[in-house]
């Protein structure tokens, strides 16, 4: 992975923050109610699932890990093309050329306990909502990828299939957390973009796909600029763009 010369920071430097942005206690609470939608067998979207304080904490944990050794970088292909995002790997290194590996010359940060418990709680809630463990098998994450997309960021249509045969074949779910600007997320049975369904992933949403949907094709078509909740930006100082965290069991 090519590390940018300067470490990539998720946070706007304090000297660039508009001092008129204040957060009143009333704005502090995330008041929108959570809901959920089963998108297809094995695929569930938990809307507005994460509290504002959890979202802020996630930004700060990712910032700390992202500016450290083995932090954010822009991975690329052999021919020099780069993914249109900044990536931070947890638990195990991943890039499009080597897939999962031990990393090169740096220690890959472990998944923080806070993330593991958020993922497990979301998965447990989803199993209850879907009323079936068959539809969404259990997993405890040991690998994670944090992606940061700017307004022009995107991710081509792909399947997540670099995990172990055992993990994929039992339909071990992928748990994906969205924070910041919203994304147009495409998913479906075919790689063909015209045949895919679209859903908007907003800040605080968690998308889970496992079981029969473990091999679903998916990608990020576009980031919707300036769509992040203002209160999140004020509290976290997250720079414009979208933070996405995906967790899996290798
Ligand atoms: O950013 C997203 O919502 C999707 C990320 C993703 O598909 C991946 O990291 O494999
Ligand atoms: Fe993916």
From TrEMBL:
GO (cellular component) term, any one: cytoplasm
Gene3D superfamilies: Alpha-ketoglutarate-dependent dioxygenase AlkB-like (2.60.120.590)
Cofactor: Fe(2+)
SUPFAM superfamilies to which the protein is assigned, alphabetical: Clavaminate synthase-like (SSF51197)
Sequence positions that bind Fe cation: 158, 160, 218
InterPro entries attached to this UniProt entry: Alkb, AlkB-like, AlkB-like_sf, Oxoglu/Fe-dep_dioxygenase_dom
Entry GO MF terms: broad specificity oxidative DNA demethylase activity; ferrous iron binding; oxidative RNA demethylase activity
Every Fe2OG dioxygenase domain range: 137-250
Cofactor: how and how many bound: Binds 1 Fe(2+) ion per subunit.
BP GO annotations: oxidative RNA demethylation
Record keywords: Dioxygenase, Iron, Metal-binding, Oxidoreductase
Protein name per UniProt: Oxoglutarate/iron-dependent dioxygenase
Species whose genome carries this gene: Artemisia annua (Sweet wormwood)
The organism's taxonomic lineage, starting at the top: Eukaryota, Viridiplantae, Streptophyta, Embryophyta, Tracheophyta
